[in-house]
Fold these 2 entries.
Entry 1:
Amino acid sequence: MGLDYTSRCQPNGRSRILPVKLHTKAKAIGVSNRLVAKITNTPISEKREDYFLIVDDIDAELDCNGYAGILTKQLPEPEKLLTPWIGGFDNMEMLKPGYIISVEQNGFTHVIYRPESHNNTLFATGRCNNNCIMCPQPPTDSEDSGWIESHLRFIDLLDADLERLCITGGEPTLLGDGLIDILKKATLRLPSTELYMLTNGRQFAAKRYVQKIAAIPDLKLLCAIPIYADVAPLHDYIVQAEGAFAETVKGLHNLARYQLPVEIRIVLHKQTIPRLLSLVEFIYRNFPFVNHVALMGLENMGYVKNNWELLWIDPLDYQDELETAVRYLHYRQMAVSIFNLQLCVLKPVLHPFARQSISDFKNIFLEQCSSCAAKDRCAGLFKSSETRHSRGIKPLTEAVLTNPFTV
Amino acid sequence: MADFLPLGAFLPKPGYQLLPFDFTRLESGEYLIVNLSGEHLILQKATFEAFTKKQLTADSDQYWNLKAKQFLLDSYDKETSEDLLASKYRTKKAFLDGFTKLHIFVTTIRCNQACQYCQVSRHNETAGEGSDMSLEVLHKSIDLMLHNPAPAVTMEFQGGESLLRFDLVKEGVLYSKEQNKTIGKQIEYVICTNLTLLTDEYLAFCEEHCVQISTSLDGPEHLHNKNRPIASADAYAIVTRNIRRTQEALGTSAVSALMTTSRESLKYPKEIVDEYLALGLRSVFVRELNPFGFAIKAKQAVGYSIAEFISFYKEMLSYILKVNRDGQTFSESYASLLLTKILTPWPVGFVDLQSPAGAGLGVIVYNYDGDVYASDESRMLAEMEDTSFRLGNVIDNSYEEIFFGETMQNIALANCNEALAGCSDCAYHIYCGADPVRHYATQRDFYGHRPTSDFCKKNMFILKYVFELITAARHDADLDRILWAWITRRDVNQMDDPGYCQ
């Protein structure tokens, strides 16, 4: 398939964007189902159903028939328009022409596509069959029955030159055959786009399901699947689901059987660090076919905030374990990367394995980073780590970077 | 905020059963345990005893280590443990997939060199055409090779000295390519040659058809010339010159060399390595004398005990490690093979050390007279007038008669070390092999008698030594880097370079 699985995590010459707010609440009138459309600020005549029109002032003369909706600062007034009217935004600056947004019945508005971003995602569902103790985005039970339709519509609206699309959730595979429709549509509509799906892989324990995915012609899909321990009880404890390990392991074997590319993801925290070397050994001996292993720093969101004591270990304090694990995989020709950790907390020998992995909309640097010589190459921090982060954050000097032995 | 269950809620019920494994006590007093998939652990005596008495509990790292490698089975997630073990076992034995892959063609038994230890009982260079393969036999043999189900095969020209009849090599390559057009196998070509008769024409042909060269170099001048003399010529000068020529024409990786250890060689472990390094060779395959052919007759003059060989091998390997520590990548092929068997999940198809044994299943020999043998050693035995391992003849017999006949079935009875006395419960047997041909040659018994088997002694020793290296590498970063450079065929100086992957 010719995909390069490590470079995807390290976009070249990526422009740094300040963290962006991507959701807001508005008042919606006439929205009976979740709406997904692209924003325009100039009236158009064709395909109006694919667009939200931004309007400063709504007056009676305005021709707004046929648009997916009208976006305006004004509070919506019933009976003034036939077209859905989403208004009363406190800030409309996040709604730029070319962006795709979704609007829920309750007026919840989410930017789901920005052409300039490398981190566009399709949020497949909020539901999940795991409930990981360090989940940054805890699962919801929210109804998603109409979502598949809107996902397909979303794909129709995407620009064909999109480099990669991340499919995430929740657990995307809970959409069942709906996910297969999504993958088919994405492959057909966006033949050059790499699809990158974050999944726990449990549904892949069903061979027929994997078979269906593998049968999609010209599919360019990488499944990124977490394994948190080399033994079932420890993994199942971390994901809080008995039987999860068994299904994920079977799923990985099924993906290999149908030659679908796989990345394995390990989140580094107090529950995974003690057996990290055993875990990478387990991966090498049992899943030597995986294309990439990502060792990932913790994101201080969702459950992490509540389970801080259970999870937090300063990355400075697990550098030896991390180096051993990286070396172990690298010597065995398994591609390995470090995600979400800052160069100043990593041993210099690990710098080449570190990737700029944090999505632009939640990526920050701290004040002390401004004088750092490695800022351009560094992953930076999650916005959520602004106040809670490693004690090792400090600016690096050029001398340190060119001579790894000075640290 | 969800309520989270504690780890205790996910623990297995007390009690476990042992999954199959073999073990041995190491000199350190620790225990090496090895299972079907080739995974191993080294346990303290107390842990080993607690483990086997089923006294470990699911709150210790030792317990998890044993569970993660499927040495024990508990109430939690039995099926996954069994599946993982099965999948790894299948992978380890995948060298069997596709059936016989190495096809050896003895295009002539004549040779221009007079090696003291010749295992194949060569005929004189001037012997008549009866010592060469006829075109009919060559073609029939190639037809058999192509009839074999393996999608990728190696066609290896052996002798005698194959360059004495380069026309047969040429015909073999061209005919197989022509016939393969409609079959589509991947064919790799190798000529085993002493390189003394090399011409530019031969090199051009090898370059055009991607033919690789495997040659013999026994060490420095006096040693090589003593072991491998040519009448009225300096064999050493010719072979080293021609190794260089071949490297220039075909690239360094297209030429490999192996050395045969004679009694004289025992004195020069370092000098032999230096000789290989000076020629830019990246590895050496250290072989002991085979108990076949002239080597048996000349045993008084060139032979040695297995203990002497082992101490030589150890000395040589220590020196090779030093060379690598000093920054030069150079490996010993036998050690690399064993390391790959022990430390990786991958299958290793090495016909001299596998179970089921390579004879017939991994390798087949088409002799110059049309007879087919189960291995190189089988035909060496035949030259000593013992045709026990003759599978048939390419003119008289069908593919089925040759590959599935009575002789092959008899070999198969003794080709799995999992079912051989003295092997089946040996801790190392997963990494070792069965060798019915050699045991028949040395002990007159397909099955062999392990306590008096040199094959067993040698491999047990080398495996123990390799395990010592593996254990030492846990606390020796340089050694770890060297061993993995050998396994993955990378430059020892670039192992930590992040771009140097795949």
Entry 2:
Amino acid sequence: MDFQLTADQRALRDGTRELLTGRFGRDRLRAAVDDPALDRALWRELADAGFFALRLPEADGGVGLGLPEAAVVFEEAGRALLPGPLVAGHLLAGAVDGVATGERIVALCDGSAEPVLCEHPADCDLLIFLGGRAPEHVGRARQSVPGEVARAPYASVDPLTPLARVTDWPHGTPCDGLDVPRLRREAALLTAAQQLGSAARTVEMAVGHARQRTQFGAPIGSFQAVKHLCAGMLVRAELARAAVYAAAVTGDALDVTGAKLLADEAAVDNARDCLQVHGGMGFTWEADVHLHLKRAWLRAVQWGGAQEATERWAAALVV
Amino acid sequence: MDLTFTEEEEAFRALLRTWLADVLPKLPPKPAATDWPGRRAYDAAWQRRLHDAGYAGLHWPVDAGGRGATPTQHLIFLEETEKAGAPYVGANFVGLLHAGPTIAAEGTAAQRARWLPPILRGDEIWCQGFSEPDAGSDLAALRTRAVRDGDDYVVTGSKIWTSHAEVADWCELLVRTDPEAPRHRGISWLAMPMDAPGVTVRPLRTLAGSTEFAEVFLDEVRVPVDHRIGAEHDGWRVTVVTLSFERGTAFVGEVVACRRVLAELARTARANGRWDDAVLRRRLGRLNVEFAALWRLTQWNVSEAQRTGGVPGTGGSVFKLRYSHARQELYDAAAEVLGGQALDAAHPWVADRLSALSYTIAAGTSQIQRNIVAERILGLPKGR
């Protein structure tokens, strides 16, 4: 047993962080808040770096890595608040032409969600729906081009993630080659990894602010009331880390739902505490804290929420 | 990241399982919780069996009489012994987890030869004399005085929260040897015989009704100078060394046990109909997620210790903060499963609900743990 990042995994993490710091730093993040249209040049650079082809076999032009490495990369994406249907790009790189290279942008929509939402509707070249309420959609995948899909406007709470409400996708064609349970499972895991990255980042933001902000003649981080908030944030992030990494190693469906639950809690609760530590500045548009909180809210309801996870883990107690 | 075990680790596990299956049915019945001499004899006999089978001091260094096992082997040992229902470390806790490792790390050859073998054999029981009535979370405020008189220290003061004091042979004692020095620099670590004249033990009754710990009064107790471990006035550093020996494995068996209790709660709730209450059912599901993750965090911490050559990481405080809270939540959920029976103090879950209340206090309160996490891991400035 050696449940720690390998040297290669650490190098992958560091390299991804370096790439995202350089190509999607704070200026780019704030520019994306003002104009959330996806940057196709960046998307192709992510593709060149292996973001989407990470787990495709090397013979097919992929990087040949596994789910743990994907989790490491998506943790970094979550940390940087990198926008766009990244999970879909990664999961469909081997199934849809042009996705691995970043030439086409594809979104995954949870057809069984209520309402059915689509991320970045103006930027996607193809939409793939997993499941659905209609009997012929259950457990199956269908694809549509955006023009065929009936949509209603939806004012997304997350300024970095434009959303549309899908009202109907009548002309979709079946894509029976896709393993729907596996896509859902891996989408949940990679979403959890992003939540973990966000949770870890908000700890750093809170600690950085608490060290530098002075009140009553001392850094506020020297006061236990603030210190203990920060400590609690780290505890949440580290427990979620153990669960997310373990689920990435086992790939087990139950492990994934548990990891998602803990990562959702860590991302949302840490963003809330980070906001609190920032005081009045935390409540402003200018601070980045709200971007973490809003994205965490969005991800928390994607690919399985708390109710489903707790029911599954309750059922697992009595098998 | 690898969660599989090596062939060597699996062989270790298989051998241990075979031994446990052979030896556990031969154990005598467990003594009553109030029968302290009986508990001591039972715990000591179990330690002797471990010793004779080569499992004593598994994670101690070989030159201290241990087996020098890896942190992963130690994890396997704790997991398998708990799953098989083997006795808990009990009265041997302080000797095996605190005093012994301190003597192994800081003692002279003669001191190691005197005290380590009896700990490993279960022949001598140790207790801990650290906390005082006015030195709890602020341990360095301790005031028990030790004054040199020839070849002895003469010790006067009092200690509190001393588990197993009634049956212990030795006490790992922190005393103030230099009252003028800055408070962390005037402390020494002594091995005090509990039968020395001037030692008085007064059992303290816990809110659970039992006498799990005691107050120890010291009235001019003579402790030979050669019973001091480490240099004079260097006891604080010696103690910090001790406290870092647990490597995040102190609660491994308990996490295994909590997961078993949780499954029992679910079965009981199914039988008495409360399982149909979605709020309770999901609460149990949430606890299942929590304990599964605590197990993964344990594996993470143990792997980290393995990579750093046994030096504990910072994961211990993170783990303890979450685990102590989860344990209390578990038994609060148990009370809900029990319904009207939750007021029956004779029910084992009710007794465990009461004892769980100590977990956020003992071995560093949750507030102290948060200070440790904030200052040592996150690097936030020390407060006042």
